[in-house]
Design a protein that fits this description.
This protein is an alpha/beta fold. It is built from 23 helices and 27 strands. It is globular, with a radius of gyration of 25 Å. Its cofactor is [4Fe-4S] cluster.
């Protein structure tokens, strides 16, 4: 593939285009992939379409200034992002161990980006060009725009705008505001004086110059007082609406951080234009010698149909980044991309996904959201579905039906997250039936996360029997269709509010449905989530009630092991957990026991009658994912970050299938947050 159609990455590329100087130089912690699942690609192409000259510096060597100077000083500004995935989540598992692969780097190689990439890059740019304007954005900057708890250092850090020394922070998805910023710079305004654009943060010396704002506790206060931290987060959380949100200020030493209200979400027409830009849809040819960029594999034959999520899971950062108002592309835009995809030389007939943060959300939760904004003191789906919610799958189903009819398309899968409670709220089963018949690749992945009402309350997830009714209907429809397909429920251990008792409650539920996950994931505290605030403060910031937090390695290991109680390697820790919880009734030979007595732990057959034995009613052994952010395709996020394989069982045969999870929020596929 010709390098000419990619944006310049070196002086030779600039000369070939006849450029003496770039207007903007975009520095990113990812390799350069010109695909609309990557934030760098979208922002650079949006600026290009607005008439600006943009160059790309991908994964520069941060030990010297050489790479930062290879395109020369930009006419207007450097733009800096930390990549599609938060650099710290990219580097470290929830246990703070270094990961083996960086899926956004050539050949999956680790070590090509620094920790806290945005801060490091800004410091090197300042070293190279002291007086240049710097604008930061992307998932790393967006979720760290206020003083925030940093899990990896176990401390409260200042706003990344302060720590990076940048002049302006653009948060959220940013297409419209980055063009507004570019136009202001082009008109001669310095970045640090751009104070009038929604979806941006800036610093001022005196708050007297800010109007109609709410002030939250200062960096000093929130770093010393957890009650103040929780109070500050509550305001941040409630003001993240483009219609009702207010300007927020927070003192940092002798400066004030000012967050303007969020930018309005894109209209359908605007979103269509963004996805119609001339992306090359692949990585730059310079990476071919290294084996390419692994992250492209999951998105190359997938289509982003929507962004935003009104699910508001408390452990997911989407509320803070993409917002709760769902936006979606038109049917025509989606179908056009699908048809173009079928002409790619390596297309095999399978479209891997059509979705977004939540695939079956296509519009706002209710008609009032675009006029009055989202509710500040109420969530759409938890603890129960709001009576005002518009539940309708017709438009999404219509898109899927037309995609199935495209020549060369053999199968269209839906692998993004689906809200099963939203499906169950639909009185018309047509979508559910056609989803099962045509769009499930053997396994349907959903996220009940837990079954304890106490834990689900703090997760912002629905409690009750909704998931059980969903499972029953799923298997009933499969039986009617003559299919044997499986459900892979994603589960999370050690979330705020989770105790040994609730972990045992979940283990007993798994016993009863005969399901044992191969891996489960501990809650991962990442910036910008309500759950992270609970983890740090021990308080629910919405009510200021105390929340139990499992903090010790021992208890986290116990909670995790209880979800895999039938694994012989977990016996000792499960035994210790049951003894500690006073649940000796679950140690024995009865059908309700989780494990055998210690003296018979390796008894006949290795399993007691009631234990999971590899088979389960959901017919699958899921290998779980590290989930820090809602994973997606628009730099997003996350939600859950790494993927593996699952082993399903069908009539004694083992079936291997991918279980890439579609936060935070959050997989080997790029995240939807940008």
């Amino acid at each position: 593939m010709s390098e000419k159609n990619f944006l310049p990455i070196c002086k030779e590329d600039m000369i070939e285009r006849g450029w003496d100087q770039c207007d903007f130089v975009l520095v990113t912690a990812d390799a350069y992939v010109d695909h609309h699942s990557f934030g760098t690609a979208i922002i650079s192409r949006v600026l290009e379409s607005a008439g600006y000259k943009v160059g790309i510096i991908a994964q520069p060597d941060w030990k010297t200034t050489d790479d930062f100077m290879k395109l020369g000083k930009p006419r207007l500004a450097f733009l800096v992002n930390g990549g599609n995935m938060d650099p710290m989540v990219n580097h470290y598992s929830v246990s703070k161990r270094m990961r083996d692969k960086d899926l956004y780097s050539p050949g999956g190689k680790m070590g090509l980006r620094p920790d806290r990439s945005t801060i490091v890059y800004c410091n090197k740019i300042r070293e190279a060009y002291r007086d240049v304007d710097i604008v930061i954005g992307g998932i790393e900057a967006s979720l760290r725009r206020f003083a925030h708890y940093d899990y990896w250092s176990n401390s409260v850090r200042k706003s990344i705008l302060v720590d990076s020394g940048a002049d302006l922070l653009v948060y959220g998805m940013s297409e419209n505001q980055i063009v507004e910023v570019a136009n202001a710079l082009n008109d001669g305004l310095r970045a640090k004086y751009i104070s009038f654009i929604n979806g941006t943060c800036f610093l001022v010396d005196d708050k007297e110059y800010v109007y109609d704002y709410v002030e939250i506790p200062s960096f000093k206060e929130v770093s010393e007082d957890k009650i103040k931290y929780a109070q500050a987060f509550k305001v941040q959380y409630q003001e993240q609406d483009p219609i009702t949100g207010k300007t927020i200020i927070q003192q940092h030493g002798n400066k004030y951080l000012v967050q303007n209200k969020p930018a309005m979400p894109l209209t359908r027409e605007e979103l269509d234009k963004v996805y119609a830009l001339p992306y090359m849809k692949t990585y730059h040819p310079i990476y071919e010698k290294d084996g390419g960029i692994p992250a492209i594999e999951e998105v190359k034959f997938s289509i982003v149909s929507s962004r935003g999520c009104f699910g508001s899971c408390h452990f997911c950062a989407l509320t803070f980044h993409q917002g709760r108002i769902v936006q979606s592309r038109s049917e025509e835009s989606i179908l056009q991309e699908a048809e173009e995809m079928t002409n790619l030389p390596d297309f095999k007939g399978y479209i891997h996904d059509v979705g977004g943060p939540t695939a079956n959300f296509r519009g706002p939760a209710c008609s009032k959201q675009l006029k009055a904004g989202v509710c500040k003191h109420k969530e759409c789906l938890a603890p129960t579905l709001c009576k005002n919610m518009d539940v309708d799958h017709k438009e999404y189903l219509g898109v899927l039906r037309k995609m199935r009819e495209i020549p060369k398309v053999k199968k269209v899968f839906v692998r993004s997250g689906l809200r099963y409670d939203y499906i169950m709220a639909d009185k018309d089963d047509t979508f559910f039936r056609e989803l099962i018949e045509h769009h499930v690749s053997g396994q349907l992945k959903v996220a009940p996360e837990h079954i304890s009402a106490k834990v689900l309350k703090y997760m912002g997830k629905p409690a009750g029997k909704t998931y059980d009714r969903f499972r029953e209907k799923f298997f009933k429809i499969n039986e009617q269709l003559g299919k044997k397909q499986y459900i892979i429920p994603y589960l999370m251990s050690s979330h705020p509010g989770s105790t040994l008792d609730t972990a045992i409650e979940l283990a007993e539920y798994l016993r009863d449905i005969h399901y044992q996950p191969e891996q489960v994931q501990d809650f991962y505290p990442t910036p910008g989530t309500l759950s992270t605030t609970m983890f740090y403060t021990g308080l629910d910031p919405m009510t200021m009630e105390e929340v139990y937090i499992p903090r010790t390695k021992e208890e986290k290991a116990m909670q995790r092991a209880l979800l895999q109680f039938s694994n012989p390697k977990k016996y000792d820790i499960v035994y210790a957990a049951l003894v500690k919880a006073g649940r000796l009734d679950l140690i024995g030979y009865g059908p309700k026991c989780l494990i055998r007595p210690r003296e018979d732990r390796f008894g006949r057959g290795g399993h007691s009658k009631g234990q999971g034995q590899g088979r389960n009613d959901d017919r699958g052994q899921a290998q779980g994912n590290n989930r820090g952010q809602k994973s997606s395709r628009n730099n997003s996020g996350s939600r859950k970050q790494t993927s593996g394989k699952s082993q399903g069982h069908q009539k004694g045969k083992t079936v291997n299938t991918n279980t890439n999870r579609s936060s935070s929020k959050t997989s080997s596929r790029p995240s939807k947050k940008r």
